[in-house]
Every structure is written in C-alpha cells, then in structure tokens.
Design brief:
Blueprint (H helix, E strand, L loop, with lengths): L7 E6 L8 H10 L10 H7 L5 E5 L2 E2 L5 E2 L2 H10 L4 E6 L7 H10 L5 E4 L1 H4 L9 H9 L4 E4 L18 H7 L5 E4 L6 H10 L3 E4 L7 H13 L6 E2 L9 H9 L15 H8 L13
Parallel strand pairs: 1-2, 2-5, 5-6, 6-7, 7-8, 8-9, 9-10
Antiparallel strand pairs: 3-4
InterPro entries: ACMSD, Amidohydro-rel, Metal_Hydrolase
Protein name: Amidohydrolase family protein
GO molecular function: carboxy-lyase activity; hydrolase activity
Length: 287
C-alpha cells in the first residue's frame, strides 16, 4: 500500500513474552488455529507498525480471562524507547486495591495520555460504582477512555458486558468525557453507530474487524448510513491483526460487489476512516 497521508493506529497492545500465560495459547488455539504473531513487545511494534505516524499503545491486564497479564511498566518502557512513535494509555482494573492511585500515577507521573478498560475481561460493568471515580478523573483531566465493547472468546467472560448500549448512560452522565468504543461493539455494530451519532463525546473505532469481513462490511454501511465516518477511527489491534491485514480488510470493502445483499460503501467513507487522526479529536486540546 502507498499511503497518501499519515496513518495513525489508535489501538495497539504491548506485552512482553513473559506476560503470556499458558491458558492464552490454549484458548486462542480453539478459536484461531493459525495463531498470531508470537511477539508484541516494543521492538516488534516499532518494526511491524513502522508505516504509522503515531501509535497508541497500552498493556491490558487480562490474566484471569484471556490469559495475558500486562503491566503499566511495559507501556512506560515502550513509550520511553520510542517516544516519537508511541503514545501510552493506562490500563485500569477497578477490582484491584489502589486502582485509582495507580491510575493517577500512570497519568500524572508516567504521563500516559489516555485510559483503556475492558469490562468484558475484568467482569466489571460500566454501571459498577467502582467505575464512577474513573469517569470523574478522566473527565476532569481531559483523559480519553477507550472501552473494549463487543464480544470475545474466553469462556469466563460475560458477553453482555460488551454491549454498546451500556455506554449511553455513561456518556450522558459525563458529557465532557471523551469515550471511544473499540471494535465498534461487534457484533452489535448498529448499536454502536447510533450511540456514536447521538452523543457528541462518543467515538468509535474499527480495530479487530478485518478478519470478520461480513461484519466489517455491514458496520461500514451503518457508519455511512448514520453519517458518522468522521467520528470513527482506524487501527490494527496488533497483534490480533497486522498492518496489512487491517488496511487490506478496510480497502476491500470499497470494491464493487455482485451480490445486492452486500451493502456498498463509498470510497469517501473508507478514506475518512483510514486517514482519521485521533490526536485531533480525542482531547479537548490536540496533543
């Protein structure tokens, strides 16, 4: 691919090899026999995502669900090594003692620029009282919150916690909090689209959908129908998809299709998403 303008990756996982637990490989083999790239450390990311101008990285702590237990220190080390490339987001797990102290340390001392949270992985719903200080802190400090919304494969996860509809009350209660729904809440992409359209402070992103071609095609048609392409962002979800997989998966959706049941998506919509820049919209003041 030859890019016309800078590309930005809004969603990348950084993990060191020792943070992968045996249960991760066991579960992944059940749903994705081909496996994934074996590494997602800072050097691998810098090499594999070299064509992106800037990359948002975080190290989720999914040890008791997916089986990868990241750490804030992993993100901090990646950003320190590649400060011109990587922008760090904290990960918050409200089940852990001192989670707000850790969040404040990550933002105020480690200088992370945003927060990631996966309700479906940590078993804490968006309406849980433990999340309220997270929302309040992020809103007060202009810290965007990326939420994993949508399905997943670990058997222990509660699928219902990934429904995009749960974002709506949060957006209403915290109108100055910038909220990003990762993966457009798939397979509930229509829910995600209407919530993005309804709430000025809510955005979507399409990471991880390139290997679900029908869902991606449908999702892009919904984005087009609701005229929200300017609020939807591009990325890889590396290591779950590579640069080429993510870009090619998006570009193929603008090609002509023979079947009338496959909705067409304009090249303008594809272009708007592909060249989206989160650093201009996710903060009240661009970073």
């Amino acid at each position: 691919m030859t890019t016309k303008r800078p590309l930005y990756d809004c969603h990348v996982n950084v993990w060191d090899p020792e943070q992968y637990l045996p249960v991760y490989h066991e579960q992944l083999a059940r749903v994705r026999p081909g496996g994934l790239p074996p590494a997602s450390d800072a050097d691998t990311l810098a090499r594999e995502l070299a064509r992106f101008e800037r990359v948002i990285v975080f190290s989720p702590q999914y040890g008791d669900s997916i089986g990868i237990q990241g750490a804030e220190e992993t993100t901090a080390a990646a950003v320190a090594k590649y400060p011109e490339k990587f922008v760090g987001f904290a990960y918050v797990d409200p089940r852990r003692p001192g989670y707000m102290e850790q969040l404040r340390h990550s933002v105020e001392q480690l200088k992370f620029k945003g927060v990631k949270f996966g309700p479906i992985y940590n078993g804490v719903g968006l309406d849980d009282p433990r999340m309220q200080p997270v929302y309040a802190y992020c809103q007060a400090n202009d810290v965007p919150l990326t939420l994993h919304m949508g399905t997943t494969f670990p058997p222990k996860s509660r699928i219902e916690l990934g429904r995009p509809l749960h974002v709506d009350p949060v957006a209403l209660a915290y109108p100055d909090l910038k909220i990003i729904m990762a993966h457009m809440g798939h397979p509930w992409t229509a829910e995600a689209a209407v919530i993005v359209r309804k709430n000025p402070n809510v955005y979507g992103e399409i990471t991880g959908l390139c290997y679900r071609p029908w869902i991606l095609q449908k999702c892009l048609a919904e984005i087009q129908d609701y005229s929200i392409a300017d609020k939807v962002f591009f990325g890889t979800d590396f290591p779950f998809s590579t640069f080429d997989e993510a870009v090619d998966g998006l570009l193929v959706c603008s090609q002509d299709h023979d079947s009338p049941r496959v909705p067409s998506v304009s090249a303008e919509v594809i272009d708007t998403i592909l060249y989206s820049n989160p650093f201009e919209k996710w903060w009240h003041a661009p970073i």
